[in-house]
Amino acid sequence: MSGQPPAHIVIVGGGTAGWMAANLLARRWGGPQRPRCKISVLESAEIGIIGVGEGSTPFLRQFFQLLGVAEHEWMPACNATYKSGIRFPDWSTVPGYESYVHPFFNEQDRVTGTEFFLNACLRRRGAAADANPQDFFIAAALARACKAPVLPPDPQGRPQLQTDYAYHFDAALLGQFLRRHALSLGVVHKVDTVLGVQLAENGDIASLQLQGGAQLAGDFFIDCSGFKGLLINEALGEPFISYKDNLFNDRAIALPTALNPAADIPSETVSRALRHGWAWQIPLSSRYGNGYVYASDFVSDEEAELELRRLLGPAAEHSEARRLKMRVGRVERHWRNNCLALGLSQGFIEPLEATALMLIQLSLFNFMELFERAGFGRQQQGLFNQRINKMFEGVRDYVVAHYHLNTRRDSDYWRANRAHHHISNRLASILEVWDGGGDFEAELSRHGDALMYLRPSWYCLLAGMGRFPAELRPLDRPRLSGAQARAATEALVREQFPSHRQQLVALAEA
Fold this sequence. Notes:
Elements: E1 8-12, H1 15-29, E2 38-43, E3 53-55, H2 59-67, H3 71-74, E4 81-83, E5 85-89, E6 99-103, H4 110-124, H5 138-144, E7 166-170, H6 171-184, E8 188-191, E9 194-199, E10 205-210, E11 215-217, E12 220-223, H7 230-235, E13 240-242, E14 251-254, E15 257-258, E16 269-274, E17 277-283, E18 287-294, H8 301-312, E19 322-325, E20 329-331, E21 335-336, E22 339-341, E23 347-348, H9 356-373, H10 381-404, H11 412-419, H12 425-435, H13 440-447, H14 455-464, H15 482-496, H16 500-509
Parallel strand pairs: 1-2, 1-12, 2-8, 5-16, 12-22
Antiparallel strand pairs: 3-7, 4-7, 5-6, 9-10, 10-11, 13-20, 14-18, 14-19, 15-18, 16-17, 17-18, 20-23, 21-22
C-alpha cells in the first residue's frame, strides 16, 4: 500500500456519512494526480434513511466547495435552507436571558460584537451591562427578519464583507444527491446485506460475506453502518466509551409539520428546552422538521411524544412520529487495522449543536492527510485517533455546558443536569475562571484547539445563559445597550440582505 492509495476501498453503509466519504475520497484519490483506487459503497436494501430535517455547521460549505458543487445545484434538490444560527429558548430562567442565540459570526459584527464581549466581561465582574448575544449579532437579526445570510453581488463589483452561515436539509434527499454525485465520479454502488466478516491472521478485515452469496474483498474498509458498528465494534471488537454519565439524552422523536406557504421561512434552528430534554424545529423549503431529544431515564417514549405534540399543536395532528434510539459517546479508536469508523459508527454527541457532519468531515480530512503522510501506511494511526478523540471531547464539553448551565427547576431532569459533577477538568476550569471574573481570554487560550469551539461561541453560551452574579452594580459609564445594538443590526439587515424565501426561489430558478 506504500506510496499509493489502497487499490480497493469498501464503504459499508451509505447515508450521509458513507456518501460524503465516497465523494471526498474519489475527489482526492481518484483523479489524474494519483493512481486511481476503486471505491465501492455497499448499502443494504433493508435499511432506510430517516428523512428528518437536519442542520449543519458552516463546515458543510467547505465540503461542497471542495467538490465543486454550487448551492443552486444541491440546495433545491435537498429542500435545503440557509441557517444563520441556533436559538435556545427556555434553557435559562434568568430575567432577560430566557432565550439566547448561538450565531454564526460575520465580518459586519465587528462593532456590535466587540461591544458584546466588553459588556459580557463587565457583567461577569458585577456591572449591569447588557450581554445577551441575541441583541448584538447580525445572525440573530437575520433570523428574526427571516432573511437569507447571503449578500447580493455589489453592482460596482466591489468586495463585500463576508457572512458565515450553514444549512438545513432533508437527510434522505442529501444522501440521494451525494450518491448521484459519487457515481458520476466513478464510485461503484452495490446493494446487498453483510452476513459475516472474514478477518485475516493479522486482524485486518479481509472480505465481507454478502447475503446474495458473493464475497466482497477490499484493501481498506470504512464503517458507516450507523450505531450498529458492524465492522468497528462487532467484527473488530473496538470498545465503545459512553458519555452517558454527563449527557443523559438517549432517545429522539421526529415529527414533521407543514410550512405556512404565505409566510417567509425562518433562517435559524430553534432548540427549545422542554421538561425532559429539548425540541428542535428546522425549517426546510418544503416543511418543518421537528423533534424531541430526551432521556429515557426521566420520561417514557409515550409521554415524550405527547409533550412534543402539545408543543406543536394542531399542525402535528395527522403527522406520524418516528422514534430513534441514540448511542451517545465514541469508540476508543476510530481507525483500527484496515478499518476507519465514520459517522454514527465512530460516535455521536447528540444533535444539539448539529456537529455530526462536521465530525465526519474533520475525521475524513485528518485521515486523508495522515494516511498520505505515512506513504499510505498505518504509522499515523495513533496520532489520528488522538486528534479525533480530542475533537469529540471538545464538542462534548461544549454540549455538556448547555445542560450544566441551565437554571430550570421544573423537573428532576434539569435539576440532575445542573447538579451532577461528571464534567471534565477543562470545563470545570473554564467555568471557574468565568465565575471568578478572571482572565477568560487566557483561560481559553490555555486549552488551545482542544476546545473545538472558539472564543465567541464560549462567550455566547455563558453570557446567553445568564451566567452572571445575581447582584449587579450600576455601570461606571454608559455602554451600548441591548436595545441599541439590536436596532443597529436590524437596520443593517433590513437594508442589505434578501428575503430567505426569495433567495431560495432564486436558487431553484438558477
